[in-house]
Amino acid sequence: MAVIKTHKGIWSLSLVMSFVALFSQVQIPRYIGNAITDSLPTVGHTTDLKPLTGFATLIFIAIGVREISNYLGRRFLLTTAYSFEYDLRHIIYEHYMLLSFPSMTGSRSAS
């Protein structure tokens, strides 16, 4: 728990960025559905159609947000993982250095 607490800021930021990427990714099909519903004429819906440019802009913005937050989230997660790995390796090394080294005299028979 001590290792996680020392890196909680960047770890929290990486999780937030991953959730932002996921949220923007699931919005894209909704924007496409709204574009199909509101911009394409159907049998009972031929008037009051909206242009596709607004929907295309929303879709491109959602894609951009997804890509940027996905990159940052993964980058921060990898940084956090390497920091965790380094800290755990350092803790194990310090523990090994505190252990006593066994004496080798008398443990083997002389040949």
Protein model, in words:
With 111 residues, the protein is an all-alpha fold. It has one domain. It is 76% helix and 0% strand. The chain is built from three helices and no strands. Helix 2 packs antiparallel against helix 3 (52-98). The longest helix has 47 residues, at 52-98. It starts with a helix and ends in a 13-residue tail after the last helix. The model has no long low-confidence stretch (mean pLDDT 85).
What would the keywords be for this entry?
mainly alpha
| Residue share in helix | over 70%
The number of E-state strands comes to: 0
Secondary-structure element series: HHH
Tell me the span between the first and last alpha carbons. 51 Å
Shape category: rod-shaped
The class by helix and strand makeup works out as mainly alpha
How many strands, what sense, and barrel or not for the largest sheet?
none
What's the helix count? 3
Average per-residue pLDDT, rounded, comes to: 85
Number of domains: 1
Strand content: under 5%
Rounded Rg: 28 Å
Give the low-confidence spans.
none
